[in-house]
Specification:
This protein is about 45% helix and about 15% strand. It is globular, with a radius of gyration of 24 Å.
Length: about 375
């Protein structure tokens, strides 16, 4: 994401028009560009205002509550203030998330980890830090997904809801495509800014036939979730662009899309009035609390995480022991997911290094998650 500082111009005189009575002007070797291309180069200011940029900055985040540079005194002061009250603040956040997830405390924990996840690097083609969450056994109503996304939009700076219906998959353009007639790039739904939270509501999916475009869109979603990349279609060739989008899937059963973490939701309550249920969240959040939560989420994502030599040895020994007990229940992918869980769990307490207590807690959370999967 880039911040531009400049002069916004909506002066109609800058638009280029091509009246019908204007004499024909031919270009090189008699070629005259089509009207679509001419209009694409200079659309009217009412459609595309002109920004004459004076300065541009690549942003590390887009939260106006925090400065861009972590070394400033203001940034350090806010971090220290939240660090002193992290237990209270985190407990309050868990209450809100648990209410949003119908009383499921374990799901609330994994939901928080998902909100803090972000791609921090890549090992060859593998994105590091992503934590796509698939909540299965969700209520089969479009209202739940819509209201949950609205709740998330209040906490996050960027979020988007994508109902995974047959109609949407067959008709929407998820990946950008080049229009050579108008000589412009047509935007796609997955053309999202960094650190956007994408909620995919699979509960709206009904039996139907996926067309060629629908199959292409499903493939694009799988690539975004697994590899954090979006394919741009230039007709004659395709180009992958790296992404950083946190994806959460709401589904009735296990999703048809891949995910890093599958968790069956165990709802303790099932409200009759969904709007009233989520309105209780809004009434419980003061402006001060909302500011702290928004600041906390951004701060946690910026923490530089590392493992001590002592804890690395403990984790390695635990992995060997778990493999001895049951090699099938602790694969390399399971271990990678567990390491991602303990990393995000540490960040949720604003810690740059995990403790043995947090490592044990991450193992217990993962064990409970697997128990739920096996019992469904």
């Amino acid at each position: 994401m880039v911040e531009f500082i400049g002069i916004l111009s909506v002066d109609p005189a800058l638009a280029q028009f091509n009246p019908e009575n204007q004499p024909e002007e031919f270009g090189v070797e008699g070629y005259q560009p089509p009207v679509e291309e001419i209009n694409a180069h200079a659309p009217p200011p009412s459609l595309v205002p002109r920004l004459h940029a004076v300065l541009c900055n690549k942003l590390t985040h887009n939260n106006p509550l925090l400065p861009q540079i972590p070394d400033t005194d203001e940034y350090k002061t806010k971090f220290q203030q939240l660090e002193q009250e992290i237990d209270t603040l985190r407990g309050r956040i868990m209450e809100l998330l648990e209410h949003a997830l119908l009383g499921d405390s374990l799901a609330a924990e994994f939901f928080l980890l998902h909100l803090l996840s972000s791609v921090y690097g890549r090992a060859d083609v593998m994105p590091l830090g992503k934590f796509s969450l698939n909540l299965s056994h969700c209520p089969v109503t479009p209202k739940y997904g819509q209201l949950l996304q609205v709740f998330m939009a209040g906490l996050l700076s960027q979020s988007h809801l994508l109902p995974l219906s047959i109609e949407n998959m067959n008709t929407l353009r998820l990946c950008p495509e080049k229009d050579y007639t108008a000589n412009r790039l047509k935007s796609g739904v997955l053309q999202l800014p960094e650190r956007t939270s994408l909620v995919i509501d699979e509960t709206v999916l009904q039996p139907g036939q996926l067309e060629a475009g629908g199959v292409k869109n499903m493939t694009a979603l799988g690539n975004l979730i697994s590899w954090q990349k979006v394919e741009y279609d230039f007709s004659y060739h395709r180009q992958d662009f790296m992404a950083n989008v946190a994806v959460m899937i709401l589904s009735e059963a296990k999703s048809i899309l891949p995910s890093d973490c599958l968790l069956p939701l165990e709802a303790k309550i099932m409200p009759e009035d969904w709007i009233a249920h989520f309105s209780m969240l809004e009434s419980g959040m003061t402006a001060e609390l909302l500011t702290k939560i928004r600041t906390y989420i951004t701060l946690a994502k910026q923490i530089n995480y590392s493992l001590t030599d002592e804890l690395q040895k403990i984790i390695q020994d635990d992995f060997v022991d778990m493999r001895k007990v049951d090699s099938k229940s602790m694969t390399v992918d399971d271990f990678h997911s567990l390491l991602c869980t303990v990393r995000l769990l540490s960040l949720s307490y604003l810690k740059s290094t995990p403790t043995q207590t947090l490592w044990r807690r991450a193992k217990n959370m993962d064990s409970e998650r697997k128990r739920r999967i096996s019992s469904t």
